[in-house]
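Example for tutorial group B:
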């Protein structure tokens, strides 16, 4: 059920209870019955709709899952019964652990006495809150029962003998309001460029016809090294870790994210390009009518859009095609360049650019056109002209990157 509650009056509202997310549905917060369907998710919706049911949900573990059940129930004194039904987890046995908790409580190490599942320890729960839980609710162990008609009758019988709101003392009220406490940290940071991973780098593609992810490993000198095919992100990442092909935690996290995207693309028929958001496949171009002239392919064509100024940069909306000058200062993610916006060259020669403090990030990939240079030139210190689509958070998806490092300079001050 993995739920948690806050208010201690009998007049509950969905806005105040429960306060911790979990796999559950809320019924009548003033109802006397909580239902723990263990791992049987299909029971939740029909049971939570029954009169007298305050909440119905699932629980998988005998530690964090039971912890949340305790806090939820003790913070809603209207709940007086906990009905356990559905199929128990063979490993964690939270159903058996809840029954053991009701009968014998926890020991001095906060372990549920006689619980048979894996790691039935409640480290963040005050023993006095466990005592309140055992006083407040009667646990009905119908583990294994999945017949909705039988369960409906049992819920009705419990609701009919509702003893009323549990009367809590001042100490118990304080325990009921207590929540898990966490130290707040902010997202973000800088991942080491994969150039520094001594084991090399990876190129990920998908093969929809074979329903496979294809992962190729290259050494730092771009020599082909290993190839892996699979259909599941987890097993593929574990294989890389098993063989010691990843040395950086940030690299492993990046690969896990990309492999998961590739797996999702295979499952839902989406287009996958490494380092780019998932998107639907583009509609194929229609055949030209007979007699229609076609142009001979030539050099990459650069979109005709005005060069941006600082003022214009602050006014553009996501999706706008932009043309700007950019100096690379860091490499925050694979195939993403971090840096600062440069003012257009006042002389019109595109040889000297004043620096600004406006940060930008430029994403590039296999479909980006590199002009006057190659991927090896996209390093810290590079000076670029970037054409592409502006996205939110000052990110530009580069379609054309012109390397100006050897022919231009930055004017400081």
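The residue assignment follows.
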């Amino acid at each position: 059920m993995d739920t948690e509650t806050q208010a201690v009056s009998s007049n509950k509202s969905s806005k105040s209870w429960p306060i911790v997310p979990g796999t559950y549905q809320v019924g009548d917060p003033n109802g006397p019955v909580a239902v723990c369907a263990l791992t049987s998710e299909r029971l939740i919706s029909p049971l939570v709709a029954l009169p007298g049911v305050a909440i119905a949900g699932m629980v998988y573990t005998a530690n964090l899952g039971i912890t949340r059940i305790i806090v939820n129930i003790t913070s809603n004194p209207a709940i007086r019964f906990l009905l356990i039904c559905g199929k128990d987890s063979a490993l964690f046995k939270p159903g058996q652990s809840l029954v053991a908790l009701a009968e014998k409580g926890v020991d001095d190490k906060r372990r549920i006495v006689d619980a048979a599942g894996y790691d039935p320890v409640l480290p963040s729960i005050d023993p006095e809150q466990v005592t309140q839980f055992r006083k407040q609710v009667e646990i009905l162990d119908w583990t294994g029962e999945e017949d909705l008609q039988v369960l409906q009758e049992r819920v009705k019988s419990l609701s009919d003998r509702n003893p009323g709101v549990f009367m809590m003392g001042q100490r118990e009220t304080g325990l009921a309001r207590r929540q898990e406490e966490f130290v707040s940290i902010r997202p973000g940071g800088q991942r080491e460029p994969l150039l520094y991973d001594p084991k090399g780098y990876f190129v990920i593609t998908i093969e929809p016809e074979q329903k496979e992810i294809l992962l190729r490993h290259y050494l730092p000198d771009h020599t082909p090294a290993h190839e892996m095919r699979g259909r599941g992100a987890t097993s593929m990442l574990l294989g890389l870790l098993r063989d010691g092909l990843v040395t950086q935690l940030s690299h492993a996290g990046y690969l896990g994210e990309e492999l998961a995207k590739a797996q999702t693309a295979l499952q839902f028929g989406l287009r996958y390009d490494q380092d780019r958001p998932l998107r639907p496949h583009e509609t194929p171009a229609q055949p030209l009518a007979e007699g229609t002239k076609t142009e001979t392919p030539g050099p990459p064509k650069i979109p005709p859009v005005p060069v941006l100024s600082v003022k214009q940069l602050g006014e553009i909306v996501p999706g706008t095609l932009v043309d700007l000058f950019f100096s690379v200062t860091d490499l925050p993610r694979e195939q993403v360049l971090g840096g600062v916006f440069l003012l257009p060259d006042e002389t019109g020669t595109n040889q000297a650019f004043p620096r600004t403090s406006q940060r930008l990030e430029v994403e590039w990939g296999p479909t980006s056109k590199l002009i006057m240079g190659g991927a090896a030139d996209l390093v810290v210190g590079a000076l670029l002209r970037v054409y592409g689509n502006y996205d939110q958070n000052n990110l530009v998806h580069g379609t054309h990157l012109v390397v100006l490092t050897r022919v231009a300079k930055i004017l400081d001050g």
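The radius of gyration is 30 Å. Compare this with the pattern of hydrophobic and polar residues in the output above.
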